[in-house]
Design a protein that fits this description.
- With about 400 residues, the chain is of the alpha/beta class.
- It has four domains: about 10-180, Alpha-Beta Horseshoe (Leucine-rich repeat, LRR (right-handed beta-alpha superhelix)); about 195-275, Phosphatidylinositol 3-kinase Catalytic Subunit, Chain A, domain 1 (Ubiquitin-like (UB roll), Roll); about 285-325, no CATH class; about 325-390, no CATH class.
- It has helices at about 45-55, 75-80, 95-100, 125-135, 150-165, 170-180, 215-230, 240-245, 300-305, 305-310, 330-335, 375-390, and strands spanning about 10, 35, 60, 85, 110, 140, 145, 195-200, 205-210, 235-240, 255, 270-275, 290, 315-320, 350, 360-365.
- Strands 1-2-3-4-5-6-7 form a seven-stranded mixed sheet, with no helix packed on it. The chain has a five-stranded mixed sheet with strand order 9-8-12-10-11.
């Protein structure tokens, strides 16, 4: 380093450094920017020694180090005289006295600190006004330029915050001399604008809840499912703008679109969400058709008399779900093998125009009166088949 006089920026990140010594036998006066992130430095003293090694250091990025404090036994004014930008995000400081210690850096104007045990209990807006209240010379915080209005507002909130507390810091008294003794706001509540107090109505019972309007309809329905134990597939939600509904301007609006954000409904404090259950879908109706039929009357009896004598009377009535067509191939083949039925006493004429147009108009078939309609149709089909064979 002592031979690189023109060097202005140095990066020594992720080198597992745990300590910086005070004397390395050199001093570099031209280095202005130093990056030492993601190491294991725990004491602020080592950071101060960096200011001794690089006497004109202006920017120090020391995030991702487990620094436990910003206080040191050494006078930091000696070492970090020119430092105006400091990043100490993701450190382990836990007391406001450490923030006060940073105010001793004479040229510090920009600070970046997001994650630390000290700031964890506070909301984002609370962190903002507390940090600005303590650090009077900061002009840029976490990348945002501080306007005059923001500083005045933050300092006034700082006064009101500590006015009701016993542990008032010295900075509180300095600000009261500047802005006066400000009275606490009536029912002051530090609450983000995206948190809305609404009423959930289910089964004519009203529940007062605070919801986050940054969530989607799908996420909100999951929240309602956890409260009311209603299946998501049957859950219906209707939004009612309290003011517009009372004026008769609009009625309930159903939340139908899962990815729509709640804030797009322009929800205000006091508005209502009515939770309803979809009715059960109708169950399909099934019916069993019972058909009375005889398995073979006269033909079956003649062909197999033994089986007919042993058949039970319970087989006369059966439930069938599939009806076999009399014009199927099996039926026609069986009929082709059977002998025609002759009976001179009674004859039945059947028109075959719709069975086969090329056949004769009238075909005489002799069928017993006691045969059922199925046998009549089977006989007609058999006659048609015989006629087709003759024509060929």
């Amino acid at each position: 380093m002592s031979f690189i006089f023109s060097l202005e920026e140095l990066q020594i990140c992720s080198n597992d450094y745990t300590k910086i010594l005070s004397d390395y036998g050199f001093q570099h006066e031209n280095l202005k920017r130093l990056y030492i992130t993601n190491n294991n430095i725990t004491d602020w003293q080592s950071i101060c020694y960096l200011g001794h090694l690089f006497s004109h250091l202006e920017t120090l990025i020391a995030s991702d180090n487990p620094l436990e404090s910003f206080r040191s036994n050494e006078d930091v004014n000696i070492y970090l005289t020119y430092l105006h930008t400091l990043s100490v995000d993701k450190v382990q400081v836990s007391e406001w006295d450490d923030i006060i210690a940073l105010t001793k850096l004479p040229c510090l104007k920009a600070l970046r600190i997001h994650l630390a045990p000290l700031l964890k209990p506070y909301q984002k807006d609370e962190r903002f006004f507390l940090l600005l209240g303590y650090m009077k010379n900061i002009t840029k915080l976490n990348g945002s330029v501080i306007t005059a209005n923001e500083r005045e507002t933050s300092e006034r909130r700082f006064i009101r915050y500590y006015s009701q507390r016993d542990d008032k810091p010295q900075r509180y008294h300095e600000l009261t001399e500047k802005h006066g003794n400000l009275k606490p706001l009536v029912d002051i509540k530090i609450r983000a604008p995206y948190l809305i107090n609404v009423q959930l109505v289910h089964n004519q019972i009203t529940y007062d809840k605070e919801i986050d309007v940054r969530q989607t309809v799908q996420q909100f329905k999951k929240y309602l499912h956890d409260i009311f134990q209603i299946p998501l597939t049957r859950l219906r939600v209707f939004y009612i703008d309290d003011v517009a509904f009372n004026m008769g301007v609009c009625g309930p609006e159903e939340l139908k679109y899962p990815q729509r954000l709640l804030h797009t409904y322009n929800i205000h404090d006091g508005d209502q969400f009515h939770v309803d259950i979809k009715p059960d879908p109708p169950k399909p109706q099934y019916s069993n058709r019972t058909v009375d039929t005889t398995h073979r009357n006269k033909k079956s009896t003649d062909s197999n008399p033994t089986n007919s004598s042993t058949s039970s009377s319970d087989d006369d009535k059966i439930n069938i779900s599939i009806e076999i067509s009399p014009f199927s191939l099996d039926s026609l083949q069986k009929l082709a093998e059977e002998k025609p039925i002759n009976n001179d006493n009674n004859q039945t004429s059947i028109e075959l125009d719709y069975l086969y147009p090329s056949t004769d108009k009238n075909i005489q078939m002799k069928i017993n009166d006691d045969d059922d309609d199925d046998d009549l149709l089977l006989a007609a089909a058999a006659a048609a088949c015989n006629n087709i064979k003759t024509n060929k």
